[in-house]
Design brief:
alpha/beta, 7 strands, about 15% strand, globular
């Protein structure tokens, strides 16, 4: 088939290999595949092994990026686990001897996931919005400024503002992490120091923008010095030191998200003419009021169903759904956390739903700024999407498409049991696209014996492009 959808060579060991009859590979042999740490390679394949180790592309698998690649490899398994749980109605969890309260919460969660096509559209819209906290007219304008910016100083200033905004929007989450870490530290202390730490931790106020400065002061001037004194006196070089390091790291993030710091970072951008072309001059008070009125939970797409799903994950990770299921819950948790990685240049959404009574688990991988194949450096971009969904009693589907200026290229893989309906599926897809005003430039509908790897559809993930470092 034509490589108009730009599917490249899949990463070794990531998902399944793509059938050569289904997908043609790119000729770019300069992009090497990351190592598969679980793959045993023979000594007589040394040259191939060196390529897989990523020596030529300089990838260190002891680095944060290496850990990101490893975690990314667990995504397919997470999808399989979620499908199994959804299709069984979470029976494997409910039968594991959990409490009546948790079982009732799971039943409530399943009721929330029951939808019709109309409610599914709203659900999908909310999930896509929630997958990116840097959205809205403000960030659309900032992206325009980034594209036009000719100075490194302006780009650096925008990234500094985004870093501070990210920490401000995560303030409640960061403070809860700190409280949890302090609770863990208590377990490594004798009674006297434990009681003192507990009293100091009780001084922390509920998170809001007014309390951030006070909480930061308590952490920096009372709690962290006490922890340092404890280590100095006890010479404890064990696990407690690692947890204290997390407390100090999260404290710096919490302080970095102070509203005044965010306002100052945004105000400094007005010194640049390229910024002023898009933004009217605003006083510090106006900027402060703008950010003070943001509902961060709503902006992040937080919904009741997601809270209940996270509660279920917490139970499972702690072994409350049976020790035999704990590893599955850990895989699901890692699969969700990867969306927060600074190396993830795509929107990634997991969608468990029960559509008109049929359980369906789907994933969407979306790049809204994929460079056009026909672009010659003029900045032409389109939308590239990989949609995977597994439907109970029907099978697994892949849809891979590229949309640009009203034209679309689309590849659909359907399960083997629908072979007799291929022409019907093709006609139905074509009708849907035309009904929504899309001109079909390329359409392929074929049986998919193997899933399309994300690494093949989006090689930029492995090239560390389009990423913003939001850590300190």
């Amino acid at each position: 088939m034509s490589n108009i959808l730009k599917i490249s060579t899949p990463v070794s060991g990531y998902e399944n290999s793509v059938s050569k009859q289904s997908l043609q590979m790119q000729d770019n042999k300069g992009i090497k595949n990351p190592v598969n740490p679980d793959k045993v390679v023979r000594a007589d394949s040394r040259a191939e092994y060196e390529n897989e180790r990523g020596i030529r592309q300089g990838t260190s698998y002891e680095s944060n990026f290496g850990n990101f690649i490893r975690t990314l490899g667990s995504i397919p398994k997470a999808g399989e686990i979620m499908s199994k749980m959804l299709f069984s109605g979470m029976a494997n969890i409910i039968e594991a001897g959990i409490g009546d309260g948790t079982a009732e919460e799971i039943r409530t969660l399943l009721e929330m996931l029951k939808m019709n096509p109309e409610s599914l559209k709203t659900f999908l819209h909310n999930q896509m919005n929630g997958s990116n906290k840097l959205k809205g007219s403000l960030f659309d304008l900032l992206r325009s400024v980034m594209k036009e910016a000719g100075s490194v100083e302006l780009k650096t200033g925008i990234l500094d503002f985004l870093k501070k905004y990210n920490d401000m929007s995560s303030g409640n989450h960061i403070l809860e992490n700190i409280k949890g870490e302090l609770k863990d530290i208590e377990g490594y202390m004798f009674r006297g120091d434990k009681d003192i730490l507990r009293q100091l931790s009780a001084k922390l106020l509920p998170h809001n923008m007014e309390n951030m400065e006070k909480n930061t002061q308590i952490l920096k001037e009372e709690i962290i010095p006490f922890l340092g004194k404890h280590i100095s006196e006890t010479r404890n070089m064990g696990k407690i030191r690692d947890i204290i390091n997390l407390v100090t790291f999260n404290t710096s993030r919490y302080e970095n998200g102070n509203l005044d710091k965010v306002v100052q970072a945004f105000k400094r951008l007005s010194d640049f003419p390229a910024f002023r072309r898009h933004f009217t001059d605003m006083s510090k008070e106006d900027i402060q009021e703008l950010f003070r009125n943001i509902d961060f939970d709503r902006a992040a797409g937080r919904e009741e169903w997601s809270d209940k799903f996270l509660d279920m994950l917490r139970v499972g990770v702690k072994g409350g759904a049976g020790v035999e299921n704990r590893e599955d819950f850990m895989t699901l948790l890692h699969g969700m956390l990867i969306n927060e990685s600074v190396y993830m240049p795509l929107l990634h959404v997991m969608l468990p739903v029960i559509l008109n009574g049929t359980p369906v688990f789907s994933e969407i991988w979306l790049d809204p700024d994929e460079e056009s194949e026909e672009s010659t450096g003029g900045g032409e971009t389109g939308v590239k999407m990989l949609l995977k969904f597994d439907m109970k009693d029907v099978g697994f589907f892949d849809i891979f498409c590229y949309y640009e200026k009203g034209k679309i290229d689309l590849l659909l893989h359907y399960p083997e049991n629908l072979t007799e309906h291929e022409s019907e599926i093709r006609e139905g897809i074509a009708e849907i696209l035309k009904k929504n005003g899309m001109e079909i430039r390329y359409l392929a509908v074929e049986q998919g014996k193997e899933s399309i790897p994300v690494s093949a559809a989006f090689p930029k993930i492995y090239e560390r492009r389009n990423s913003i470092n939001v850590t300190i």
